[in-house]
């Protein structure tokens, strides 16, 4: 038995690079698509938000001299590229991935409306919501929490390259310890950089639980939904 019936899955754009330095690793993308199909076959309703850091990050662009608003808009377009790639990979697996965009760009994708996305999910389609919030100065983590709340998701699953939340960067601090469970208040007081403060506050205020886990290990998505104790569970 799977634990949730409707989820929002946040995927890292950087993770899509796999072992590459830039762009999309086709094998990693196919792994993601197969994992998503595996749980969709169990009648789980799924929305997906993907970052765009494998192509362009607005904040890093601004640091290099780009206008911040234009840089963030470039980052939004990067998420659309990744969303189209995931939709294509899902279709190869025999499941429909419908791309929604937060800014109008038909026929690339359908303009996002929460009711349309929920109806797609109820039909068994994967609702892939791209373009962030449609506004500069907001991250895709904030967009993910916002869409999760709008779509009445029971949980947001934040798929990353690490296996949960640690007291410090485990790649830099060998004494860093992993949390099996942590509250939003603890994240704030410890100064842990799991998501930006806007996303964290929005999740806390709307009582949205988040599970941070390693999406790059094949099979982990199903394990999380089966209630296995992997990753870190974040709650109020």
Describe this structure in words.
The protein contains 8 helices and 11 strands. The chain is of the alpha/beta class and 236 residues long. The protein has a single domain (6-235), classed as 3-Layer(aba) Sandwich (Carbamate kinase). The protein has a 9-stranded mixed β-sheet with strand order 4-3-5-2-1-6-10-11-9, with helices on both faces. A two-stranded antiparallel ribbon has the order 7-8. Helix 1 (26-40) crosses helix 3 and helix 5 (140-150) runs parallel beside helix 7. The longest helix has 25 residues, at 68-92. The relative contact order is 0.17.
Offer a quick outline of the entry:
With 236 residues, the protein is an alpha/beta fold. It has 8 helices and 11 strands.
Question: What structural keywords apply?
Answer:
236 residues; alpha/beta; Carbamate kinase; 9-stranded mixed sheet; two-stranded antiparallel ribbon
Helix and strand run: EHEHHEEHEHEEEEHHEHE
Q: For the record, what is the CATH homologous superfamily label?
A: Acetylglutamate kinase-like
Query: What is the CATH-assigned architecture?
Result: 3-Layer(aba) Sandwich
Structural class: alpha/beta
Gross morphology is globular
Name of the CATH first level: Alpha Beta
Q: What is the tally of beta strands?
A: 11
Radius of gyration: 17 Å
Q: Could you say how many structural domains there are in total?
A: 1
CATH topology name: Carbamate kinase
| Helix fraction bin | 25-40%
Mean pLDDT: 94
Largest sheet: 9 strands, mixed
């Amino acid at each position: 038995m799977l634990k949730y019936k409707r989820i929002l899955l946040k995927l890292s754009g950087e993770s899509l690079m796999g072992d590459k330095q830039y762009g999309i690793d086709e094998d990693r993308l196919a792994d993601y698509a197969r994992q998503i199909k595996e749980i969709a076959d169990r009648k789980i309703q799924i929305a997906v938000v993907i970052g765009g850091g494998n192509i362009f990050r607005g904040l890093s662009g601004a640091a290099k001299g780009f206008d911040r608003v234009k840089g963030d808009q470039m980052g939004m377009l990067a998420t659309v590229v990744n969303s189209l790639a995931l939709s294509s990979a899902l279709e190869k697996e025999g499941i429909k991935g419908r791309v929604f965009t937060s800014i109008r760009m038909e026929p690339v994708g359908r303009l996002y409306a929460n009711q349309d996305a929920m109806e797609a999910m109820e039909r068994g389609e994967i609702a892939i919501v791209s373009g962030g919030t449609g506004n500069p100065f907001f991250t895709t983590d904030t967009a993910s929490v916002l869409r999760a709340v709008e779509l009445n998701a029971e949980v947001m699953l934040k798929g990353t390259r690490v296996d949960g939340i640690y007291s410090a960067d485990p790649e830099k601090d060998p004494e860093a310890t992993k949390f099996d469970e942590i509250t939003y208040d603890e994240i704030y007081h410890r100064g842990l950089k799991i998501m930006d403060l806007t996303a964290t506050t929005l999740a806390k205020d709307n009582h949205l639980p988040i599970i941070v886990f390693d999406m790059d290990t094949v099979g982990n998505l199903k394990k999380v939904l089966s209630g296995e104790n992997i990753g870190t569970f974040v709650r109020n």
